[in-house]
Structure formats: C-alpha cells, structure tokens
Amino acid sequence: MSYRAFNAHADEYDAWFDSKLGATIFTMEVECLQSLLKSYHRPYLEVGVGSGRFAQALGVEYGVDPALALLKKANARSIKVKRASGEKLPFPDGIFGGVLIALALCFVNNPLSVLREASRVLMHKGGLVLGLILRDSPWAESYAAEAREGHPIWSKARFLSKDEVDKLLQQCCFDVIEYRSILFQPPGQNFYHLERPLLAYQKSSGFTAISARKR
User: Fold this and answer.
1) Which tens digit of pLDDT belongs to each residue from 170-208?
2) pLDDT digits over 82-97, tens only?
3) pTM of this prediction?
4) CATH of the domain at 97
5) Which domain range does residue 156 map to?
6) Residue 34: C-alpha distances to residues 29, 131, 155, 172 (Å)
7) Does residue 137 contact residue 110 with C-beta atoms inside 8 Å?
8) Residues 31, 46: Cα–Cα separation, whole Å
9) pLDDT at residue 3 above 90?
10) Overall number of domains in the chain
11) Contact present, 146 and 154 (Cβ < 8 Å)
12) Nearest to 107 by CA among 61, 57, 70
C-alpha cells in the first residue's frame, strides 16, 4: 500500500516543499487550483491531505489520509484531520461544498471508489477540484523513469490519462466545468521560473487542474 511509503518517508516528502525547487513548483500548483476551489461554497475537504501543505495554502478546513506520519504534520498546520482512505470517507452525505484531491489520485487503490465517495459527501451542485499529473505528460514520464529506478514514492504511483479521468468523473455524476494547466518547463532542470496557469487543458503541461460539479 502506498501510504506505507509515505509513512516511511514523511519527513523527506514534506521537506521537498521547502526546497527552492519544491517551493517554486508548489506555488504554481496552488495558483492553478486556487480560483477553481474558491468558486465552491465552504466547508472544504481534502482527500489525501498528506502533510497539509495544499490544505493550508488553499484554506481547506478538513483532511483525510491513511498515512499517520503525514497526518500529524497536517494537524500541526491546523487542519482538522481524520485517518481514513479516500475509498471510505468518515463523513455523512452532502456536508461539503468543495472536495480537493491534489496529486493523490494516482496513489489510491481504487480511483472510481474515491471519486464516488467524494460525490457522496458533496452537497448538491458542490464541486470537486483535482490536481493531476496526467500519464502522457513529460513530468509523468520523468516520474515513471524514477519509479523504474526504485524511487520509494513514485514507484507506488499509477498515472491516469485525461480520457480515463474524464470517464471516471462521468461515471460518478460529475460535469467538468473547467481545465487549467501549468508547469510547461521540462523536468530535470535546476531552476524553474514562475508561470501563470493556462485556462485550458494542454498535454504538454506538467500539472493539470480540473473543476467538476456534482449533478
């Protein structure tokens, strides 16, 4: 299970966000997600909250994750956390206005079940915001190469294609509202400059955000 890898490497994973490279990429990803999430009513839940970096930056109040070591870090960032998998959320139906899944969908065992649970806990016309590394992007190819070399985190990832994500959303009664793309600089560089999100899907981007509304 991927959460065991995150437990074992929690400090290393969280420290990446404070590195020069990590901080720049994270800033771009947050900007790509921010206006999409803000278009939905509170409260917000992040599924796969990890160490709480995205939740803290985006003002998400609640988070779930199966990795206890990461949850402790999220809790220290004032996120109200529960230990749980995305396939079985410990919340009643229809209580969140927005659900965020940032970079976690590629690590879950059953993406369809996770998205169905996200739909269940969302209010009518509530919104799901996904942050994704899609399979055909240069960044997914780079991380897949690291996985083949035994990287402890990326070896647990299974990247989805845009068509697969669109189909899953349709199956879970979501209507896609908007795509956003960022991180067009290639992987493997020592320096990255800040970009602005493109308000469309682009195959060449390293990070794709999708806003989808519950029917």
Assistant:
1) 999 999 999 999 999 999 999 999 999 999 999 999 999
2) 999 999 999 999 999 9
3) 0.97
4) 3.40.50.150
5) 2-214
6) 9, 11, 29, 23
7) no
8) 16
9) no
10) 1
11) yes
12) 70
